[in-house]
């Protein structure tokens, strides 16, 4: 459990502390011409002089008392006063096509991902666990009806459903959370229902009923805690799928609108990159893969029995 | 109330009976899916289509849609009217492309079926082969390699695979075309050259859509096959002197094939959803790309048409998977 737990803690830490961790403002376009497509580990200075707009100058050097640097591929001369007033810039992971710091953008994209994914998974669990418990306890026609509903909902391609809803309204952050949450509950409902079924005639349920618990109280206080590992695994697997789906939507330009920064959005913006600027694709891709891999690893470690993971398999992507 | 238990049926269900039952249930499943889509449209906050009006939007088409979804008509009546329209084959009129939605969607759907069909074959062949190789070398380096490579590929979204492929094989090396289904001058090519041209266009979209799925199938095959290989009857087979290949393929794989076939049906919704992103990335003229462009043009009838066809297609595909597993395993016939 230790590796994945550490990873989760690190991701959550970065997500929460993104504003203070990010070296630069993720939206700042300090110099559209001079700062774009700078390679990782580039050191530069920001020269702000009265007559010009601020310029990001790289490769600053001094030769025989004269300072010079590179600005948009051209050598520019600088005087000592400019050097003294300049701010330093260090682009750890490079810059994008608008001269924004990729490292800062990734930190904020992670924050966005975590926020969207946790809230929509919470919503999905609320619906899925609720329906799963109801179907598990129900006797009579309700259980088959609910389960056929789950079957049908599982067969809906989530991305197309989202496209439909995105056409009917304008994409916004709440809508995305709502849709991601409301389309990902079926696997949770199915697993919880199976769990409740296996417990409802067992000793715990019998004792609870003998003690006078109502069915609702029995489900919430006595059966659900037994199913806790199952719910954890389901949540982690749902989260992994939701990370991918959210990134795909943002890649298509249908994610949360601009002030939000998403991994998919960064990847989409990187498509126009000139040949050789690998970093704009590599870093966000690596982060995305690591997030999904890490989330699945949490599920695999916390798993009560492998059948739950198997039941989840590759549905819902 | 006593606990109900499944009593084992003594009568052996025939395959024909199962096919009949499933086929009879299919319309109800489709109806349920359509209902779900309808309810989702109704659940969207605000009046549907309220900001669809504008220059370039056909007022007639908009009126048609408003009539279908107008909130002042009772929900039940609206629902029935909507179903009636679909049943009569009228999917509406595309506001952006100014063509009837039905033929548009079918034409694009055929291209998607071509892509998804090839992807399905690729992902199951590659996945099963990978899983078998890993299971054959259980506990050795080959097993670890296949499993870690699969875990990483499975965690990589299709469009990320696609971006990587484009960067390497199209922009970098220039070996493969990155857009469209065929070259513009394909009509002028000889038959052989045209086939090669189409195949070259197919390679990257197929890999982008299929690699994550193939990785999932490989992991799954490795796991089920690994579990089967430990069973006593396989030790028996080995002790009878059967060769490792025969034990693995004839006795092991056959017994773990069933869950893999079930995966086929489960992977369909994801493939159709993933095709939206991959088709858009590679400008593949399929239904996913059509739906995406319809969204950008706020062309509701077209998006609705695409969604409906996709839902129906996925349900039919799942039905095929169900029937396949019923054909493979008599137990499923008895306890559907």
CATH T-level fold name of the largest domain in chain A: MetI-like fold
- Please provide the ordered H/E string of secondary-structure elements of chain B: HHHHHHHHHHHH
CATH architecture of the largest domain in chain A: Orthogonal Bundle
Q: Per DSSP, what share of the residues of chain A sits in E-state strands of 2 or more residues?
A: 5-15%
User: Whole-number radius of gyration of chain A?
Assistant: 26 Å
- Briefly, what CATH class of the domain at 102-334 in chain B? Mainly Alpha
Q: How many strands, which pairing sense, and closed or not: the largest β-sheet of chain A? A: 5 strands, antiparallel
CATH architectural type of the domain at 102-334 in chain B: Orthogonal Bundle
Main beta sheet of chain B = none
Form type of chain A: elongated
Low-confidence stretches of chain B: 1-11
Whole-number tally of structural domains of chain A: 2
Indicate the structural class of chain B.
mainly alpha
CATH superfamily of the largest domain in chain A: MetI-like
Features:
heterodimer; A: 317 residues; 5 strands; disordered C terminus; B: 336 residues; mainly alpha; 12 helices; disordered N terminus
